[in-house]
Amino acid sequence: MSESLNSQPNEAASADERIRLSIPVGMLLENCRSGGFSDDEIVNMLNVRDYTKLPERVREPEMEFAERFATVEEMGEDWEKALREGYTFKFLHVGALRRLLYFRHGLAVERDYVQDELDLRGVPLTAQEAEELQATIVRQWAVEPEQGESAKPGTYRVRLKFRD
Hints:
Blueprint: E1 19-21, H1 23-34, H2 39-47, H3 65-75, H4 79-85, E2 87-89, H5 94-105, E3 114-116, E4 119-124, H6 127-137, E5 141-145, E6 155-160
Parallel strand pairs: 1-2
Antiparallel strand pairs: 3-4, 4-6, 5-6
């Protein structure tokens, strides 16, 4: 179900040391990574504005790459450093969290896990994937192993930190 990408952020940086990205910037980078491109390939494609290889390989080929990258440049966030060293989201609503799971792991709500209000339950991840996800969404979300009689091994609950 869950598939690893060939390029993962450096997990050595703590959440406080990581670049904080907005949703549009993070989703562009995650969609590019979903195509299996290396960080160097992504940096090169975006810097030279050659988006031709992206639609045939990424999970969301209909993304308007040129328009999205223009927004990224306007926002002035250090996306290259974030790509190479890891990042956290400044803010992440539940819809963007679902998209992040789709880009990173090919997971879809109702097919692979369920949404219970603002909680995502039964999210199938390896321990390393759960740790990487937590490092990216640490500001407002918690990734915890599912518990209870019906919990399947290797599944996680992703919940808003500021609730229950």
